[in-house]
Amino acid sequence: MHIGEICTVQTICCTRDDTVQGAAMLMRRHHVGDLVVVDADGGGSVPVGILTDRDIVMAVIAPGLDPASLLAGDVMSDDLLTASETDDVYETIERMRLRGIRRVPVVDASGNLSGIVSADDLLEFLAEEMGELSRIGSWQQAHERRARQ
């Protein structure tokens, strides 16, 4: 299965030039813990970083800095891992595991943002897969009963 089939397409974004306070207000308004930081590129949005609520706490709030005077680009994580819409789910999971990353922007063939996939999305997908796998035994027994009648 491709990662584009399970990613969340309604991704909340900001730009590098948004203030950290504005970004935090955006997170609050949309009830999310992260924003994909994008650069506009000829009608598309190219992901350049991620800003999480943890980034804000660790880099701004804890040291007592003013969130209104800092930009998202100053605080965002810019060592960005992205996945293509056509990337395999299991390969993406492995890349996330190796890098210790919980959220990955998903891009289209042009490199524009098309969604985001989180560890929670992947856990939900895997739980559904395991549920399907667990039904094999009962299906097999029912099939065998029908075949032997």
Question: What labels would you give this structure?
Answer:
single chain, 149 residues, alpha/beta, CBS-domain, three-stranded mixed sheet, 6 helices, 6 strands
How would you portray this structure in words?
Helix 1 (20-30) links the parallel strand 1 and strand 2 (34-41). Helix content is 43%, strand content 22%. It has helices at 20-30, 53-61, 72-75, 89-99, 119-134, 136-148; strands spanning 13-15, 34-41, 44-52, 83-84, 103-107, 113-118. It has 149 residues and is α/β, with parallel strands linked by helices.
Could you outline the blueprint of secondary structure elements for this entry?
Blueprint: E1 13-15, H1 20-30, E2 34-41, E3 44-52, H2 53-61, H3 72-75, E4 83-84, H4 89-99, E5 103-107, E6 113-118, H5 119-134, H6 136-148
Parallel strand pairs: 1-2, 4-5
Antiparallel strand pairs: 2-3, 5-6
Q: Which fold does the CATH topology refer to?
A: CBS-domain
The spatial strand order of the largest sheet comes to 1-2-3
Structural class: alpha/beta
Fourth CATH level, the homologous superfamily = CBS-domain
Distance between the termini: 37 Å
What is the number of helical segments per DSSP (H or I, 4+ residues)?
A: 6
Radius of gyration: 20 Å
Indicate the low-confidence ranges by residue numbers.
Answer: none
Q: What is the architecture at the second tier of CATH?
A: Roll
How many beta-strand segments? 6
Mean pLDDT across residues: 93
Report the helical percentage. 40-55%
Tally of structural domains = 1
Query: What series of H and E elements makes up the topology?
Result: EHEEHHEHEEHH
CATH C-level class is Alpha Beta
Largest sheet: 3 strands, mixed
Based on Cα principal axes, name the global outline: elongated
Strand content: 15-25%
